[in-house]
Design a protein that fits this description.
Elements (H helix, E strand, L loop, with lengths): L2 E4 L6 H14 L3 E4 L10 H17 L2 E3 L13 H6 L6 E5 L2 E5 L7 H8 L6 E5 L15 H6 L1 H7 L3 E3 L8 E4 L2 E4 L1
């Protein structure tokens, strides 16, 4: 599977620009963003500022984004999401033999849990979300709502790999046969 994963790109536009330039050069089929494109999602000018950086993905419609804690109430209602044609906080994306699960770890609703619990076993699921369940990096600790609500579903679905953001650095951890990468 040819895909790229990035997240927490809110802090430095120049570094964000360089990371995205490299992703564009690599030409992945799918790009997953684990949240926090901007520092404050309630400030429209921040979305306007990052919009040109993500422009190459709009025509291809190959960028998939989940809500980060800094994006607040406008995570799904902004010009980036409008350009991507996606205003959902959780959804799935089928690609080749895989199903990427975009999950909202900021607001884990009964509707999202019900949707997740009705997914059939037997697919190769790769969830991506903002908050890590079992980080080993210093910074933010594990997110208890993710552990309580998502991990049992991941185990039921036979998930082997999960991508997260929130902690600002590379982290790889394995628990109960699931690899977690931040």
């Amino acid at each position: 599977v040819d895909f790229a994963v990035l997240g927490d790109s809110r802090s430095d536009l120049q570094i964000n620009r360089e990371v995205l330039r490299q992703i564009i050069l690599d030409e992945p089929k799918i790009v997953l963003h684990t949240g926090d494109m901007v520092a404050n999602g309630d400030i429209e000018s921040q979305w306007t500022e990052v919009f040109p950086l993500y422009q190459p993905f709009f025509e291809k419609k190959n960028l998939y984004h989940v809500c980060g804690n800094h994006e607040a109430g406008h995570c799904t209602r902004n010009i980036v999401r409008k350009a991507l044609g996606n205003d959902r906080s959780f959804y799935s994306v089928d690609f080749q033999n895989f199903t990427f699960l975009a999950l909202d770890s900021n607001q884990i609703t009964a509707e999202q849990i019900q949707w997740l619990s009705h997914l059939p076993v037997g697919r190769k699921y790769i969830p991506f979300l903002h908050h890590p369940a079992y980080p080993i990096l210093s910074g933010h600790s594990g997110h208890e709502p993710v552990v309580k609500n998502f991990i049992p579903q991941f185990k039921r679905l036979g998930v082997k790999l999960v991508f997260t953001g929130h902690n600002h650095g590379y982290d790889r951890n394995e628990k109960d046969g699931i690899v977690y990468i931040t």
